[in-house]
Amino acid sequence: MTASIGVIGSGTWGTALAVLLAAKGHQVTIWSAIEKEVESLSKERSHPNLPGVTISDTILITGDLGTAMGEKDLLVSAVPSIFVRPTAAKMKAFLKPGQVIVNVAKGIEETTLMTLSQVIEDEIPGADVAVLSGPSHAEEVSRGLPTTCVAGARSKKTAEWVQDVFMNEVFRVYTSPDVLGIELGGSLKNVIALAAGIADGLGYGDNTKAALITRGIAEITRLGIAMGGKAPTFGGLTGIGDLIVTCASMHSRNRRAGILIGQGMTMEQAMDRVHMVVEGVHSAKAALALAERYQQSMPIVEQVNQVLFAGKSPREAVNDLMLRDKRREASDLLWE
């Protein structure tokens, strides 16, 4: 089965997925809003942040959104979270009946607290929006290293079709109806990864990292279930799986930014040094606002916000986390 696919966004993740899809035999077009990027990618057939990866000559690269979307079976929304709404607004004019939009970006819109699929649906009412998420760094997917993800959609038919389009011998795709849980796991883990990076920058060790990952998924799960997500999702690939890889890998821009903050840089300086969008910074305020709205305790998220936006020292934030009131690990486990 082959499909005609438009990848909306030419960052590392959009480009990696375009390379993956073209290698499977699909007809792929990449769209970029930046004219110089279109020219560079078309000429060099490589992405500066994906060294050693060749963009096949079969992939068309364009700055015209109508060309990228016209006559396509499936559209991959791969722009950074802060650009999802304005891009979706532009896409509305070109969307054809029956086209599926697969959002692969991760984040929560700060002003509305919507997930990104909700943002797309808000701009394009009636659109068939699916999501693809999981522990999947672009640097590894583009090189064909074994990876697993989850395709989430409102309907089983859409989820299974997305699964068929993307899945190959090195890219395994599962399906799930829990779109909300998938997106919350994918966005909130970026905030925890900032904390993990900060701990690394401070010189802390594996014990600290393990604690942040474990207590981080506890925070994500509490909020996710309160919002309507399903517990198994947070224990799966798009929950703990994505959290582990983002907290542990140097491919993670959130972890890298956190390391720089832990070493003394401001949030702005760290973002400039990373040279790519650090989604956790944009999701941190939204995560805290959601915790307050749903009355859920998220102490790691609270401390990350204090460090990012209130000038709190990273070392003091870790100290405050360690000296919180004593409590049980799991409140539903009781002595007989």
Helix content: 40-55%
Mean pLDDT: 95
Q: How many β strands by DSSP?
A: 8
The biggest sheet amounts to: 8 strands, mixed
Q: Give the percentage of residues in beta strands.
A: 5-15%
Helical/strand content category:
alpha/beta
Gyration radius, rounded: 20 Å
Calculate the terminal CA-CA distance, rounded to whole Å: 57 Å
Biggest sheet strand line-up: 3-2-1-4-5-6-7-8
Detail the poorly predicted runs. none
Shape: globular
The total of helices stands at 16
What is the H-and-E element order? EHEHEHEHEHEHEHEHHHHHHHHH
List keywords for this structure.
globular; about 50% helix; 16 helices; alpha/beta; 8-stranded mixed beta sheet; about 325 residues
Structural features, described:
By secondary structure, the chain is of the alpha/beta class. It is built from 16 helices and eight strands. Helix 1 links the parallel strand 1 and strand 2. The longest helix has 23 residues.
Topology readout:
Blueprint: E1 4-8, H1 12-23, E2 27-31, H2 35-44, E3 60-62, H3 65-69, E4 74-77, H4 84-91, E5 100-103, H5 116-123, E6 128-133, H6 138-141, E7 147-152, H7 156-166, E8 171-176, H8 179-201, H9 206-227, H10 231-234, H11 237-248, H12 253-262, H13 267-274, H14 279-293, H15 299-309, H16 314-322
Parallel strand pairs: 1-2, 1-4, 2-3, 4-5, 5-6, 7-8
Antiparallel strand pairs: 6-7
Helix pairs in contact: 4-5, 8-9, 8-11, 8-12, 8-14, 8-15, 9-11, 12-13, 14-15, 15-16
